[in-house]
């Protein structure tokens, strides 16, 4: 079925994305970047930064394919809260590539500000989509197990984001700049893995949903 082909294409794109990010971690000059303190976007400023751009666009393309599969499988509607939030995740990923992060060797930039906003949009939109879709699926017995895994993945992603939120909110009284208060690179990588896992679980849901297509409660209202 078309939804299964879309979901599998999405998973293939995400697998290629993970392979490129793994390559960046072991190949100079990106392998010399301190992964504990430097964000993934730092790779885009290096000579092999093309791999970061390609990997992120592959993740965006794979996520878009998964969104199309979910809509096709009637797991969610494109105009629902879950569908819109998943679309914003894709837009945020593209924005991260189009607008480079601040290159602090030359100072802040408008591009860097937009990059940071796009990152925040992506990081928050996906778990919101997972929570909305998962909560809706709990009311539909044929897909409840898949919905629970997606819901838990959304919760896990938000928990991974919480150290960043704590660092931002605590800065006024600790006096420590938020990106120094936590091992930002490590936190972002953990968050990234949690969000990739969330997309993969959504893809799995899209492939399982057709088996329950004959039951009227399959279509989501998230």
Explain what you see.
It is a single chain. Helix 1 runs antiparallel to helix 2 (50-72) and helix 4 runs antiparallel to helix 5. It contains 7 helices and no strands. It has helices spanning 2-26, 50-72, 81-98, 110-137, 144-174, 178-181, 184-208. The two termini are 23 Å apart. The chain has one domain (2-212). The protein is mainly alpha-helical and 222 residues long. It is globular and about 55 Å long.
Chain oligomer state: single chain
Distance between the amino and carboxyl termini: 23 Å
Q: Write down the secondary-structure element order.
A: HHHHHHH
- Helix fraction bin: 55-70%
Structural class: mainly alpha
- Globally, the shape reads globular
Number of helices: 7
In brief:
It comes from Actinoplanes aureus. This is DUF998 domain-containing protein. The chain has 222 residues and is an all-alpha fold.
Question: Descriptors for this entry?
Answer:
mainly alpha, DUF998, disordered C terminus, 222 residues, 0% strand
């Amino acid at each position: 079925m078309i939804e299964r082909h879309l979901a599998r294409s999405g998973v293939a794109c995400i697998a290629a994305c993970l392979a490129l990010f793994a390559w960046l971690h072991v190949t100079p000059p990106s392998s010399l970047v301190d992964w504990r303190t430097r964000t993934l976007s730092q790779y885009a400023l290096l000579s092999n930064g093309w791999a970061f751009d390609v990997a992120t666009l592959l993740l965006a393309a794979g996520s878009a394919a998964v969104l199309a599969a979910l809509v096709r499988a009637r797991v969610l509607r494109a105009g629902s809260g879950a569908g819109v939030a998943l679309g914003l995740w894709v837009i945020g990923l593209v924005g991260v590539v189009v607008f480079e992060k601040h290159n602090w060797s030359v100072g802040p930039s408008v591009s860097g500000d937009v990059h940071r906003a796009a990152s925040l949009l992506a990081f928050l939109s996906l778990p919101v989509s997972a929570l909305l879709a998962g909560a809706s699926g709990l009311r539909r017995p044929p897909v409840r197990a898949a919905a629970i895994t997606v819901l838990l993945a959304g919760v896990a992603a938000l928990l991974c984001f919480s150290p960043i939120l704590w660092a931002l909110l605590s800065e006024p009284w600790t006096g420590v700049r938020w990106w120094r208060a936590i091992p930002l690179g490590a936190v972002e990588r953990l968050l990234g893995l949690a969000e990739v896992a969330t997309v993969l679980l959504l893809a799995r849901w899209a492939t399982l949903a057709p088996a329950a297509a004959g039951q009227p409660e399959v279509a989501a209202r998230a």
